[in-house]
């Protein structure tokens, strides 16, 4: 287990940072083979929806589904920080909602959602998880903001979007719910 007080060498931090920046770049290019090559075993944890995408097939499905929803998905990095076992990236995720996102129907609206991703490394400097945090309500607000709410014909779309958001986290992954408290005694 990584000593939480031991800061890796500058060489290790630079290598981690390069891997993370390559990962971001390859996601924008939608070069999934290169993105997946940054992990020995691809694993994403999406905290707001309590979902896990584990293994090559599940992660490829995740990429496919998010790019159907946001084919122009991009990002703007705000800050990048290092910890004993992770690279932490704050960024804006951007995109136009042109396809379904889970149960949320396409609205045609653009979003710019602030996110944080933890790229966690094991003791052998392998990337073992990308753990993503963001506020789903601020994203949903942006996705429905382009819908004319004064037009009653659009209300079913908004209701489907709200139901879709609720359904996305209705079956939480036990890995993200059944967690043990941190051992801070050392």
TrEMBL record:
SUPFAM superfamilies hit by this protein: NTF2-like
PANTHER family given in the database record: ESTER CYCLASE, POLYKETIDE CYCLASE SNOAL-LIKE DOMAIN
Protein name: Ester cyclase
Organism of this sequence: Nocardia vinacea
